[in-house]
Amino acid sequence: MRPHRTVKLKGIKADWKHPTEIRFGLNRIRELPEVCWQLGVQSPLLVTDTGVAQLPFIRTMERLNAAQSIETGLFCEIAGEPDAACVKKGAEVFHRGRHDGIIAVGGGSALDAAKAVALASAVGPVGMWRFTAGSFPQTGPAKPLPSLIAVPTTAGTGSEVDAYAVILEPSGLRKVSLHHRDLLPSVVIADPSLIRKLIPYLTAATGMDALSHNLEALCSPLFQPILDAIAMQGIAFTKDWLPQAFRDGDNLEARVYTMAASIMGAMAFEKGLGAMHAIAHAVGAMFKVQHGRAVGAVMPFVLKANRRKILEKTAILARNIGLPSHDFNAIMQWVLDLRREIGLPASLGELGVKEEHVPDIAELALRDVNLTTNPVALDRQKLERLLSRAVQGRL
User: Fold this and answer.
1) What is each CA distance from 48 to 43, 44, 108, 209, 230, in whole angstroms?
2) Are 265 and 208 in contact, with CB atoms under 8 Å apart?
3) Contacts of 134 (CB under 8 A, 6+ apart)
4) What range does the domain containing 119 cover?
5) What is the reported pTM?
6) N or C, which terminus of the chain has less Cβ within 10 Å?
7) What CATH number is attached to the domain comprising 364?
8) Residue range 3-50, pLDDT digits in tens
């Protein structure tokens, strides 16, 4: 079936403010100096990971800023999942360079690290743990957080439009979500041309993460019909365009719509997520597995565990995205087919997880804040059964 074209590619340029200002469209990275001046930022620290730091558009961003008398520093010591040591070092670089803002560039790890650096710069690397989601302090930091500009270079995490930063605890054994309202970037520059060369491996993994955000948000038991509508459309964009982006990275139209789906998923998950993310965070912390691959591995197993609570929503979803039948089974089959088409693992076992790891993963998942909005309440016994099936690949 040919994907539905909702708007001509050349006409895609929009300014959104939900929940923050989003400058979306091709080549809008050229507006970076304007955004810096808009926020009063004259000496930003550009925070990214070691891989993205080598890409040509980083030099372009530095040149664009320099031409407008904006001196840009660079911190790119992020490799893999951001942890306490990385954030501490970034905060030290921020203070040493007397920077007055942060440009966060990259995928979820880099964006989360940059947001955590902003928080640590205001409250200290130790003080930032007071802002762990679920244990909100009564008062905010004495000094304001630096202005944040987010520039995503993947289409998956949606970290550019939320007020959270997922960081490994000092022990390195658990991922936690830091939350502060000022971790929501002031401006997002969402330029699909920056993800044009994203490799198929990361296109698939980040695309599955975006799907999980939209899907778990839709299935969340909280009542928010506006976000349900956003999630529905985000899933539809994923269905129509993720396989094309995976097969042909130069397809800019596919990149536009997968990036839109990513942002929509992050907007929608203000409703909450669920067991997919609780488990994926635990697996990622223990095995250093790319988050989207872990999410994809457990997605069908979580859907099955939630089946009795999401029958109506999945039936509506199946109809809205044009599946042959309009029921839960159609959604399950579509997920399985999509996962196979884009080459993601079919079980946790394929990621190196063994039966002996199930109790430890369950322990971490039970402590994850995302489990509170899973449609079906999962206690330790139910969670271990789910994990055992996911390890074996047995639906």
Assistant:
1) 16, 13, 10, 20, 29
2) no
3) 369
4) 9-194
5) 0.91
6) N
7) 1.20.1090.10
8) 544 456 666 676 766 789 999 999 999 999 999 999 999 999 999 999
